[in-house]
Amino acid sequence: MAISAITACTTTTPEGKYLDGVHQVSGKGKKSEITLEVKVEQGKISSVKTVSHQETESLYLNAERLFSEIVTRNGHENIDAISGATYSSNGILKAVNALPRIDGTQPEYQSVGPRSQAGDDDFKLQWSIQPRLGVLKGDYFFEDARFRQGHMGSMLVVVDSANPQDVILAEFNESGRPNYYVRLYQNVPKRMSEYNFSMGKKKGTAWVQSALTMEKLMMEKDQLTFEPNPNYDAKLGNKLTEPNRLKYLGIDIVAGASNSIQQSMIPLTAKIHNRIQQGVSNEFFYQKAEKLLDEKGRWTGVTAMLRLVVDKKTKQITHAHYDEIFADNKQEISDPSLKAFYRQSKYDSINYGEPSRIGFNVMMDALTQHLTEGGSLFYITDLPATGDSGTYAQTGFTKRSDAWDNYLNLAKSLYQQMRADGVINEHLSSQVAK
Fold first, then answer.
1. Strand order in the sheet with 151-159
2. Is 106 helix (H, G, I), strand (E, B) or coil?
3. What values do phi and psi take at 285, rounded to 5?
4. What's the alpha-carbon Rg for the chain, to the nearest Å?
5. What is the pLDDT of residues 28-87, one digit of tens each?
6. Residue 41: DSSP 8-state
């Protein structure tokens, strides 16, 4: 919707950013046009007040906290939305963007997200958590075990069914121990959660960077085992110039997860390597990842991913996981309310809230249980937030989650591939031809 800018009165143009005067400007909020009265003196904003709006009153009052920042910054640039009032905040900032400028320009407004709980705008560390797009399949191996004070490490490896020496996927994850000193991260998976931002701010490196480095090495070199360092001395662990601090030869990885790599990832992968060498492969792995597009065919900044594991003998699902993963950069995420979750996934994020008002992880854990107990890929009406209940008090959720439609789309596609390969039992549904 176009943003209107109506100048109530304009005086002579002084040096400054905006035209002097009292201006009425408007921007679209969540439920209505928000109209502001903005006073400009000597090219600078001196006051902002609301003329009209039909937003939720309590949320809009919260968003009005932006007024003082707009005056201080003399504009809307570099101001994030108020958490919980993202749309109203963007309506206010859009309106300010519409103020008439001295140079006659009218910049395009870029929506902003809420003040990030995960990372600030000046967070410089880079990494990517994006899954490989399309279908990925092969023999599945998985090991997990607790290590060092109770952290849970897990290792997933997929190899080519025809050539087991070809490592198609290597993925390490770790959950904080149940008694972790930071309560927020107790039992929280680290790979795609806020943990990496928190650690990055404190130590200058993110946990996931080490995992990604090792995974890339394993896949590029098809290597799952590493030689121990015969002169390893655990007491030298913090001495970065001492080669004997390394438990494995040549593995001088980013310090952020050195203990995790050496005490969990490599030992778990060695177990998997032994299973592969022994020809022990009981399960097939199938994954499909697909970018979610808007009605104009543009990427929303969210990627859907479904993983299914089936027993080779029974052809029944033994593991299933669906997730939606946010882009690596805020700018790529179109919904301003989701920008704060960049480089995280809905399942692993601590702060992400599903609009249906039930945890995304709760929904997907229920899906996993449903499928591993023999439930259909497509008959999911007994799962949380698959329908509009309209009453949070009775059911704990209020409306159908869009995630279920995204899941069903991937499930249909992946199921057809698996049926063509003859690896899964039939799952009847009106959505899938018999």
1. 167-175, 151-159, 134-147, 283-293, 299-311, 317-326
2. coil
3. -120, 135
4. 26
5. 999 999 999 999 999 999 999 999 999 888 778 878 989 989 999 999 998 988 877 889
6. E
